[in-house]
């Protein structure tokens, strides 16, 4: 399960890898937050929604994007709080967590770490054999995070097998 943390929309995307290495789409969407609600209420809403999704889909791992540099310190702080809630939901549900840099995510999905948003969406669509891009760009980003984790864990498993 990939989670794209955001203060207005928090995207989620669930994909799996078959025994033959093929990526398979499960679901995706976005948790919409009201700007009118105070931050603690928004954070509680994210926690409850993620907890419900984790309970329903039972992901083996949850992957999120690492903190990146932001020009606006206030925005970065709010984003950090949302990331903390995602981490809490993962820990609360007993699901291991992985973090990836934006560069690693784009490299894994597109093959180029400085890819544009639309390029990521197109590759998510292609890799998961979707007829159209996810409705929300936050959901597409969350699927990209999930794909990055699946690719990375598959590579690490192959390397471990080769070292035996």
Give the tags.
single chain; 164 residues; alpha/beta; Nucleotidyltransferase, domain 5; five-stranded mixed beta sheet; 5 helices; 52% helix
- Count of separate structural domains: 1
Return residue spans where pLDDT drops below 50 for at least 5 consecutive residues: none
Largest sheet geometry: 5 strands, mixed
> Beta-sheet strand percentage?
15-25%
- Residue share in helix: 40-55%
Describe the structure.
The protein has 164 residues and is an alpha/beta fold. The chain has a single domain (2-162), classed as Nucleotidyltransferase, domain 5. Helices cover 52% and strands 18% of the residues. The chain is built from five helices and five strands, in the order E-E-E-H-E-H-E-H-H-H. Strands 3-2-1-4-5 form a five-stranded mixed β-sheet. Strand 2 (9-17) and strand 3 form a beta hairpin. The longest helix has 26 residues, at 137-162. The radius of gyration is 16 Å and the shape is globular.
């Amino acid at each position: 399960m990939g989670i794209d943390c955001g203060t207005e929309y928090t995207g989620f995307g669930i994909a799996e890898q078959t025994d033959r290495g093929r990526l398979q789409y499960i679901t995706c969407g976005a948790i919409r937050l009201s700007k009118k609600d105070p931050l603690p209420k928004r954070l509680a809403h994210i926690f409850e929604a993620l907890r419900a999704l984790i309970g329903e889909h039972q992901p083996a791992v949850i992957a999120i994007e690492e903190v990146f540099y932001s020009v606006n310190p206030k925005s970065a702080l709010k984003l950090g709080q949302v990331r903390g809630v995602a981490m809490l939901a993962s820990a609360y549900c007993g699901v291991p967590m992985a973090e990836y840099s934006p560069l690693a995510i784009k490299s894994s999905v597109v093959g180029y770490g400085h890819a544009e948003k639309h390029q990521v969406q197109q590759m998510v669509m292609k890799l998961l054999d979707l007829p159209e891009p996810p409705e929300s760009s936050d959901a597409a980003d969350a699927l990209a995070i999930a794909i990055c984790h699946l690719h990375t864990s598959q590579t690490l498993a192959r390397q471990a097998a080769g070292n035996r």
